[in-house]
Amino acid sequence: MITQGNVVAAQYKFASKSEWDLIKAVQGGDKQAYNQLYQQYIGQVYGLCIRLTGEKMLAEDAAQEVFIQLWRKIGNFKGDSKFSTWLHTVTSNITISYIRKQKGWLQKMFNIEDSVAMNAEAEESSSSVDIESYVARLPERARIVFVLHAIEGYRHEEIATMTDMAVGSSKAQFHRAKHLLKEWMGYE
């Protein structure tokens, strides 16, 4: 016998019942449920934002933008996948878009080449440089492709769609990122 509950359960098979109830509450405008969703996912969202932007301030702003857009667009989530998967895609897209919007502003406010050189000098003088600091040093397009492919597991075809670049460009940027990381880490 098919009941409305069975249809809902089948349609939203990837979300747990409590998660689905929370999402439905947020879709209905419940601000307390939204706050709970925020608390549950802010760490994951911020982590992806910091890996994509390479800068704390930009990552914080991008994460904030993700949650602003989440409030506006959560109605688009239909439960066809896990909420965390959907949010990951939304976060990637919004962060990449945010980086593009901020690029002109950042170039006016800071001399990008000088800040990259200063960061590189500071990191080279530190004895405890980790991989994330090296990833943060990568040029923007190479960093985005590297994070999306090597860390987040996206295919180059997906990255090309997300970033509006050719598949070959995605592969070239990934190769560039790997080469730079090997060089900086002393593997070449």
From TrEMBL:
Q: Which domain of life is it from?
A: Bacteria
Q: Domain RNA polymerase sigma-70 region: where?
A: 37-103
* Domain called RNA polymerase sigma factor 70 region 4 type: residue spans: 130-178
Q: Name one GO molecular function term.
A: sigma factor activity
Q: Which Pfam families match?
A: Sigma70_r2 (PF04542), Sigma70_r4_2 (PF08281)
Q: Which family does this protein fall into?
A: Belongs to the sigma-70 factor family. ECF subfamily.
Mind telling me what this protein is named? RNA polymerase sigma-70 factor, ECF subfamily
Which organism does this sequence originate in? Paraglaciecola arctica BSs20135
Identify the coding gene: rpoE
